């Protein structure tokens, strides 16, 4: 079926971001009742608000593409990490806290050597749920042009392609199972007697950063030529509509026929395209190229 998953680093970036930001906020909530009382209603709001709502301001500020998907996924997925971290630290037995105080432990020693180690199973359960929620957002993010397996599912639904939809959906399930098993075994990994845990975490971090940097450098390499040309003004992007639309197929054919390898057709939805149209109509100093629409563009695409 030719399933592709570009910008995988952006998906991993969302999951890493939920961990890096969520765990410290959860610890802060456990240590400070005022912070907990402020953060709890915000988390309730974030978890009950439909994920599509987060896409609306993101599109207006950043346009369609990866960024709105990252923002919506982050807001939707970070709440379990914060809640479970807070819960895990609060459920540490008081007698252990009193024992650490009796031995003269400082607040940081008590936190890092008593509370966090005992709360690790609960914290990892929250991290696991955040990863699963972020993964569940891939199809929603594809509605605003975010690439990946979610775009393959959305394309299959638009084109009523059962085979491609099943294959992309099965790929998401396999990734979810793998990530679930990894997060469940991070505390006592089976490989620890072979290689250090720090080395594994370092390799994973380098892979995520390397994937993101590779995507950035590839995009910058493609953006060469005259800065005043239409291509440079539109970042070599053609804002499209639903993947199943006939106009999208014709545009892809035109890109292949004219060998416009640097150009990228961004699949999204009619609503996302209209939002991009509205955004660019406000920013009159920048051109936009859309399927069936052209704003401030010359006839020469390159």
What does this molecule look like?
With 302 residues, the chain is mostly helical. It has two domains: 8-188, MetI-like fold; 230-295, Glycine betaine-binding periplasmic protein, domain 2 (D-Maltodextrin-Binding Protein, domain 2), CATH 3.40.190. Helix content is 70%, strand content 4%. The protein has 13 helices and four strands. It has helices at residues 8-31, 33-48, 51-62, 66-90, 94-102, 107-136, 138-142, 149-159, 162-184, 197-222, 230-233, 246-257, 270-282, and strands at 237-239, 264-266, 288-290, 293-295. The strands form two sheets. A two-stranded parallel ribbon has the order 1-2. Helix 1 runs antiparallel to helix 6. The longest helix has 30 residues, at 107-136. The two termini are 32 Å apart. 33% of the residues are buried. The model is unreliable at 1-9 and 292-302 (pLDDT under 50).
